[in-house]
């Protein structure tokens, strides 16, 4: 079958990566996964295969290892572009183990860029984050909002990676074109409930903690602080459905392969509106019919009071906008949690 091109997806068995693999395939691309399964589970591959009715090639390697990457590029041949998801992402862990984060998140990008240059692969979509903005002075944040000192080593790795990509774009002779997508807060799962967020151990993100509490895995949810300067005192975030987020990567790859991208471009990928933690809790109760056991706790160190995106640039230049809302995101996350429980029986 003729495809639009072979796209290497690092971290392709992870939460966002697995959904991007689905959207790439359905858009006519041939996705090829690289994953070392440190932060993901083998079951994601089975979920992808069940949705697509075909297996997707997966190379089990670590992206920090140049020789292993080189072998993949050599064996695959004709790679049209790369989407680089592979990274550690737990903020708290990054504070405790900064070297682990710098080695993996920064080291894997450097290794990947070296091998891409060797094999003349010139199109890269980089998985960045709204954490690069730190605690913003004004809302909503645009791509021109100043990048402030990161709140964690994790956030700093994303800043450093963007700096590396910018320096490379400004250097003589580099042919690599990069689109960096600054995600806001991905939630939800594929409508099939065959893939979704699979946190290892205690979840770091709000929505899986909510669904695990509702199903009885966790005793209760703690809302960290209700004394922030927000409508109800709880933190405000921009929650984007993971399927919408995955589709943004396809749009970015299309733009790169069409030769429409500048040497480096940054885009905010969010919904353009903020929802508070308590709003998320109430919306979940509404769509799931479950009463949630939650308590109010003290503020958590390092939490940004509120952040949400201005998505004008992504809409106008990238031609991307979200289609799914908070209710769809939470309903699909709940279906995924129920599916996980049923599969364990």
Write a structural description:
The protein starts with 5 loop residues before the first strand and ends with a helix. The chain has a domain of 232 residues: Rossmann fold. Helix 2 links the parallel strand 2 and strand 3. Strands 3-2-1-4-5-6-11 form a seven-stranded parallel beta sheet, sandwiched between helices. Strands 7-10 form a two-stranded parallel ribbon. The protein has a two-stranded parallel sheet with strand order 8-13. The mean pLDDT is 95. The protein has 345 residues and is of the alpha/beta class. 41% of the residues lie in helices and 16% in strands. It is globular and about 55 Å long.
Could you name the CATH topology of one domain? Rossmann fold
Q: Tell me the name of the CATH class of one domain.
A: Alpha Beta
**Overall mean confidence score, pLDDT:** 95
Q: Major sheet: order of its strands?
A: 3-2-1-4-5-6-11
User: How many beta strands in the DSSP annotation?
Assistant: 13
Question: N-to-C SSE series?
Answer: EHEHEHEHHEHEEHEEEHEEHEHH
- Tally of individual helices: 11
Structural class: alpha/beta
Percentage of residues in helical conformation: 40-55%
Strand count, sense and barrel status of the largest sheet are: 7 strands, parallel
């Amino acid at each position: 079958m003729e495809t639009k091109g072979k796209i290497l997806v690092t971290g392709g068995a992870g939460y966002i990566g697995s959904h991007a693999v689905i959207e790439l395939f359905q858009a006519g691309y041939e996705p090829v996964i690289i994953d070392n399964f440190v932060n993901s589970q083998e079951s994601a591959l089975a979920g992808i295969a069940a949705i697509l009715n075909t297996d997707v090639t997966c190379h089990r390697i670590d992206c920090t290892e140049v020789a292993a990457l080189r072998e993949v590029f050599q064996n695959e041949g004709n790679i049209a572009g790369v989407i680089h998801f592979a990274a550690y992402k737990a903020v708290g862990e990054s504070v405790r183990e900064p070297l682990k984060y710098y080695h993996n998140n920064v080291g894997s990008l450097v290794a990947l860029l070296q091998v891409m240059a060797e094999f003349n692969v010139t199109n890269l979509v980089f998985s960045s984050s709204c954490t690069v903005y730190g605690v913003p002075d004004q809302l909503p944040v645009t791509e021109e909002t100043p990048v402030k000192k990161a709140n964690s080593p994790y956030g700093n790795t994303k800043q450093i990676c963007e700096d590396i990509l910018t320096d490379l774009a400004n250097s003589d002779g580099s042919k690599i074109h990069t689109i960096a997508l600054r995600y806001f807060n991905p939630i939800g799962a594929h409508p099939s409930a065959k893939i979704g967020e699979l946190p290892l151990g205690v979840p770091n993100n709000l929505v899986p903690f909510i669904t695990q509490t509702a199903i009885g895995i966790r005793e209760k949810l703690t809302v960290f602080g209700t004394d922030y300067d927000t409508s109800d005192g709880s933190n405000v975030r921009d929650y984007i459905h993971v399927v919408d987020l995955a589709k943004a990567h396809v749009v970015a790859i299309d733009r790169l392969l069409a030769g429409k991208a500048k040497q480096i471009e940054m885009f905010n990928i969010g919904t353009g509106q903020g929802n508070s933690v308590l709003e998320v809790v109430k919306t979940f109760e509404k769509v799931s019919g479950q009463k949630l056991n939650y308590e109010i706790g003290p503020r958590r160190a390092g939490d940004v009071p509120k952040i949400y995106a201005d998505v004008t640039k992504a809409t106008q230049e990238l031609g991307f906008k979200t289609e799914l809302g908070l209710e769809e995101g939470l309903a699909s996350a709940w279906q995924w949690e129920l599916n996980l429980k049923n599969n364990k029986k």
